[in-house]
Amino acid sequence: PGGDRCRGYYDVMGQWDPPFNCNAGIYQYCCGTCGYRFCCQFKPRRLDQSGCSNYDTPNWVNTGQPPARVDETPEDPTRDKTNMIVYIICGVVAIMVLVGIFTKLGLEKAQGPQTE
């Protein structure tokens, strides 16, 4: 003879806990509460699962769709263009600085060592 079978149920957090068998050694009985079940060794502590009512999805879990997100400020397309212009200007300046540095290095190398 095997042990009890704890029926699947919805726990206190609304999560489904699947059914399981109590057949591991001396832990033969389904014990605990309707919202938290486990296997135990003492028959007097056995849970009367027929008295539990948490076998269907709780109503409070079905909250429906979340409300649509409302932005605090409306979308401003000119702001996006301003950011892009700043990025372009910074990129052009950086490229000009690099060109200047490499030009200076190239000219110094082409002139060779200076004699005084």
From TrEMBL:
One of its GO terms (biological process) is regulation of short-term neuronal synaptic plasticity. The chain crosses the membrane at residues 84-107. Keywords: Membrane, Transmembrane, Transmembrane helix. The keyword Transmembrane applies. Its main location: membrane. Pfam families: Shisa_N. One of its GO terms (cellular component) is postsynaptic density. Residues 3-54 form the Shisa N-terminal domain. It is found in: Membrane. This is Protein shisa-9. It comes from Manacus vitellinus (golden-collared manakin). The lineage of its organism: Eukaryota, Metazoa, Chordata, Craniata, Vertebrata.
